[in-house]
Write a structure and sequence with these properties.
DNA-binding; 204 residues; homodimer; 10 helices
Chain lengths: 204, 204
DNA sequence: GCTAATTTTGGACAGTCGTCAAGATTTTCT
DNA sequence: AGAAAATCTTGACGACTGTCCAAAATTAGC
């Protein structure tokens, strides 16, 4: 077996955990590039500095690796707009900052976003991810809601929709823009920015 | 080669086309059940009455079969709420009819819907479907817009959002409800019905 | 009813997949 | 330094994939 399951020095445990992180990172890279349907363990290993056999040294099987990777992915995924909320000093600023931030991450991180949608969709067929996916989805909803709530505070009007509706709507817009952008429609991000800002005013 | 490419009797051509329909139907069945990532030609053949070899008699390769299946899928997909629009005699009727219809198809056709989202997502990675997916998405947008426009007519107020925003929002709601429903949350359909009706009033 | 064309079968192929384990390598501890 | 433990590589396995093809079964034309 391995050190990690025994009572061993801190260093050893950390190193084991660190390798798992490292391999999970490679897994995310492969998933973002190839999509779930075509991501194999050998592809993942090739993105790392190791051979394919090592994956079963740090993970019991493919499902455990991917599940771990999804959980890791979560961290990057659910605080994206908090800076915008913190920085905005007025309703107008928040509205435009939110739209601009969504457009920016659409342009910059398209591969990562399609990975998220791919995983979320995969959970419609595979039970193994479903729990984590639902959890991340909830946190994303909270993240969006923090924006809407703050906007409502600024305008001193109550929000007109539930957190669920707000999240679904913004997420739907983003997903559509992602598809268009990957299809080569360069104006997709601009449209998204405008649509997001407009939608926000309808929700409070 | 085959009859279909020569000048042959009408009957023969029809039969060839008919087999293609039949096999595409089996492909959709397999896709809905297993998801794109796990649908193999042998699985598809098993859903039909034929052996796996026959698929390459009617289709050049897997991509052509799946593309054909996606196009076939389109037909069922883009007229779902037209009956509701036609039947409704008032704004209230339309609002509740729309919500009820969405909730109903969520309950009844969950497998088919997750197939659609799976294919749409796959087109983020594979170029081959992208054109058809974008086309279907557009038609779905039109379908939703016919509901919103009719609602605006009934209430004699102008719609407050663009077709893009309306579609993205309703689609986002539906997608989220689908995930929850497949995760065993039985109240997802009821929530969807209420959210859809509420959202409609915010859009006009 | 016989021949020819069409349709279908089922096996073979070259790859790829997840998984595993034996052995080589590196690190850790005394 | 040497022994022990941890880490990594490599090759193999059985199963599965898309594709192709020769032969069997079916149908159509005369």
């Amino acid at each position: 077996m391995t050190q990690a399951k025994e009572r061993i020095s801190r260093r050893a445990v950390d190193k084991f955990a660190q390798r798992r992180e490292q391999l999970a990172e490679s897994a995310l890279q492969a998933l973002a590039e190839l999509g779930y349907a075509r991501t194999s363990l050998r592809e993942i290993a090739q993105k790392s500095d190791f051979s394919h056999g090592v994956l079963h040294y740090y993970f019991a099987d493919k499902v455990e690796l991917l599940t771990y990777a999804v959980r890791k992915f979560e961290e990057v995924c659910v605080t994206r707009y908090d800076d915008v909320v913190a920085a905005a000093g007025s309703a107008e600023e928040l509205k435009h900052g939110f739209g601009a931030a969504m457009a920016a991450t659409l342009r910059t991180d398209a591969a990562m976003h399609r990975l998220w949608y791919d995983l979320r969709n995969q959970s419609l067929f595979e039970e193994s991810f479903r729990g984590d996916v639902l959890d991340i989805d909830e946190q994303r909803q909270d993240m969006v809601w923090r924006v809407v709530r703050r906007y409502a505070e600024f305008t001193e009007r109550p929000a007109q929709v539930s957190p669920e509706v707000a999240y679904a709507a913004f997420d739907g817009l983003f997903q559509r823009a992602l598809l268009q952008q990957l299809a080569g429609q360069d104006e997709a991000a601009d449209r998204l920015e405008a649509d997001v800002a407009a939608l926000l005013t309808h929700f409070v």
